[in-house]
Amino acid sequence: MGQKAVIVGAGVGGLSTAIHLAADGFEVSLYEANERVGGRANLLEFAGFRFDTGPSLLNYPWVFDGLFARAGTRLEDEINLLRIDPAIKFYWPDGETFQLSSDLNVLAEECRRLDSRDVAGLFNFLRDARHKYNLSFDRLVTRNADSPLAWFSAAGLRNLRKLGLFRSMDSQLGIHFHSERIRQAFGSYGMYLGGAPYDLPGIFSIIPFGELEHGLWLPEGGMYSLIQAMERTAKRLGVEIKTGAPVSSIVHSNGRVTGVTFDDGALDQAEIVVSNVDVPTTMTRLIGSDSLSDYRPPRMTPGVLTYYLAVDRELPTLNHHSVFLPANPRAAYDQLMKRGQIPTDLSFYVSVASNSDPTLARDGKSAVFLLAPVPLVSEASDIDWASTADNLQRSMFERMNQHGIEISESDVLESKYWSPVDWSDQFGLFDGSAFGAAHNLRQIGPFRARNMSNEINGLYFAGASTTPGTGVPMCVLSGKMVAERIADRAAKEAVA
Ligand SMILES: Cc1cc2nc3c(=O)[nH]c(=O)nc-3n(C[C@H](O)[C@H](O)[C@H](O)COP(=O)(O)OP(=O)(O)OC[C@H]3O[C@@H](n4cnc5c(N)ncnc54)[C@H](O)[C@@H]3O)c2cc1C
Questions:
Q1: Ligand 1 mean position to 35 CA, how many Å?
Q2: Neighbour-count burial of 411, counting CB atoms closer than 10 A to its CB (0-12 exposed, 13-18 middle, 19+ buried)
């Protein structure tokens, strides 16, 4: 039997870590507080409908190819992926739209419609972003780096300027696109990175590129089918998964981790503990920041108000994803991210996964997911979420009606909503932040929380708030990278 490792939390990062460590020969125990694995990528089932709670599409399938290959299986043997194209349509209040497709002829035509100069812009953008994307994933995102120097050297000093680290995402997009609408659409990806496109580094223009280049996919049965495949794979490799098992503390002594404890006082001893619980929650609740010097939580991405609606009609005009943008995105970002308020002119997105996989809803009906970015728990102490959820749902329906999408309160057979407080309570998300630590220049690469504790030997981190960052593929990579750290340490100890 190999060396023992305990993982706390079975989110995407925890499951990925478990698979990688088990494939490396470790004896792995994984403890999950909830009755079901998956963390934010969870499942709600009611009224004959099935909803993914968080992520609603899979991107960068090559990351999952790598994950399942490490476990001796294949992505296509584990889940059936449905290609979703066109996947996303953006709507503005004046009726303008912009639809994304990986079919370049279709996309070029759509760019031409908004500004004829942007056909050339599109191809320049794709060339530039492809270069950035390859550089990022080959040299930066997938590698552990211990210092800014190591990270910048890995990129190659002469490539630094080309990465767009030192200009904003919006200005990076502005190099290629004349249309303000196209900039706003691609820039809106910044919301889940925790910043306005005017503040985030330009390297993040690779996100819309990555989706166009590698496509967007829905696992048959919904995103939770991916989680189930990861759980199955981990178990097959011998990982012991215990659900309904909240860890109450990570114990350490003389600067070394010694195990984890549970509510009943039981201790599971281990010299390696990987926390997949949001890093600032781990630091403040599971370790106790007073035992660590100067811990300061990072700046977090906003909260979200999410709705799961069993709708009594088909919604054929909606794509899998629709993003409703405000007339003035800059003002909305400022309200949300700088003043901690719900934007007056709300930006939100709608996913009708049952339009892509009809098994997710009852016949002739729709499984509808709504997401509105909202302030963090600490910024929203005066918000009554029950009445706010009602009001915002009404305004989202009104906005959809303006665009000719017929939906009203009376169409909703049954529904649930989750506020930032619910997200925080259910999954330990720090301050109710939906996507974890933000991705401004001071919180990416070597400046982001490391996946290995500097102060407690044997303590590691995986998930959205550590490296490389947020999103399902990034959390899968996070599990791979932390397993590499642990294997490196084991190799060094074997030599010593
Ligand atoms: C609404 C929403 C929409 C999203 N959409 C997308 C998308 O379209 N595409 C995309 O790629 N990403 C998306 N994301 C982001 C993606 O879901 C996350 O980045 C990813 O799932 C986070 O995984 P994680 O590894 O950080 O673990 P988490 O999901 O944070 O899971 C941590 C786990 O630890 C458990 N835990 C907490 N405390 C304890 C304890 N004391 N003991 C034991 N267990 C504990 C929790 O219950 C949880 O299961 C979305 C997120 C949200 C919230």
A1: 15
A2: middle
